[in-house]
Amino acid sequence: MALLARAFALAPKLRALAACTGCIHALADDLAQADAAVVDELRSRCAELWAACVGVLSRATGELDGLSACVVHAFNGTTATLVDAVCGILHVCLSVGDKAAVARAERKHAVFGKRGTWPVETADLFPSGAAVYVRFETPVQMRLLGDVLFVAHALVFPAVLRENDVLVGALVRRLNTAGDPESLHAALALIRGVSDAPDAVPDALLQLTLGNEEALFDAAMDALNATKDAPAGISDALAKFAAALFPRLEVLETNLDPRVRAHLTAGDSTLGLAGILYELFQEISTRKRVCVAPGCGASVSGRFVRCSDCGVAVYCSKSCQRRDWNRDSVVAHKVVCPLLRKIFAVADLSMSRYAFERAVVGAYQWSYPESETMAHFAISHDCLPMRFQVRAMQIHVAIWAVMGVPVNKFRAVLQNPEFRAAMHVMSRQENWAAGA
């Protein structure tokens, strides 16, 4: 229990900025090797340590100068050493053990609000906002940024986008040093935090990497080729990242790595409405902490409630649920819910997409107004990834044509530059996935 005693002794000193940087760095190193049970005890009993670490990140650089060294550490280190040390301590807090915030987020539990387990409230982790975590000069800083993105994506991602180009440059450098395991793990932790967090929007990775695809793709491929003997999970994560970037490259790659090709999805251009809805429901099922009520989008709070009738819509409160039900819209929940109940009376998400489509299409022949409602529902939901949104828009336009909607209404959609660009990306992705 010597580690616990040291943590308790150092916490008030660190909060007062009277601690030895060497001692804090040593604590960070030892915590990284500690058992999960020790970290659990610190999370429940020593909130002062974690709060002091957050406080260091919230201070201006000049305020951190001049910490005195102890008798053991003659050289006290630099401000950068101190920042790295507290980032390492917070990374352990958020990621180690089943009770850690990252583990709770993976299980779709409430990240905040668990009594006796730090962070108890959002304010514990973000007393000065999310921007203090947007640091990526070293691997441990990038790993901590990946952690906070994973547990509070809606709060942190906007701050990340404000540093987009600088962050992308740092990510390229980490991938280019794939021979250093710490750098590679840091890069993959950040990518995971951006794209796989339970409350991440589906195209968050697209938003982060837009305009920098070529540099990132080349770096990812270099890392993939340099890690042939790495565990399968690392190679798979790199291949998945490269596959997400590839369809947006301007230059064709003549010999695409089979590991990357395996992550390209074919068949989207012929997908029917039932298949689109299947993909949407699968996305929603992984994002159990995002309120779907219009104008809300809350994600960082306690447990969310799911509509007891359809089981699809998720809300942060009863008031949001009532607002979504009663709003004046073609996709108000009182309109959509009966149609969703019909779908889940004959199909469920344990089925393959093909089986789901067959079950739904075989059971129901939707009217054109019902089809339009469901297509509109899919398009309006921010859980639907870009390539499926494009296909849903195509279906929506086709339904309009059959219903006799004036041609100028859907001509504007077809001529929209973003729609046309998305169509180009989707067609390229399909050609390569099919082996073209």
Polypeptide structure, described:
The chain has 436 residues and is mainly alpha-helical. The chain folds into 2 domains: 2-261, Leucine-rich Repeat Variant (Alpha Horseshoe); 268-433, no CATH class. Helix content is 61%, strand content 1%. It contains 23 helices and 2 strands. The protein has helices at residues 2-15, 21-32, 36-45, 47-58, 79-95, 101-106, 122-125, 139-151, 153-161, 164-176, 181-195, 204-209, 213-226, 232-245, 258-261, 273-286, 318-326, 333-346, 353-363, 368-380, 386-403, 407-414, 417-433; strands spanning 305-306, 314-315. Strands 1-2 form a two-stranded antiparallel sheet. The radius of gyration is 24 Å and the shape is globular.
Structural class: mainly alpha
Looking at the structure, the CATH topology of the largest domain is: Leucine-rich Repeat Variant
Widest beta sheet: strand line-up? 1-2
What is the count of DSSP helices, taking H or I runs of 4+ residues? 23
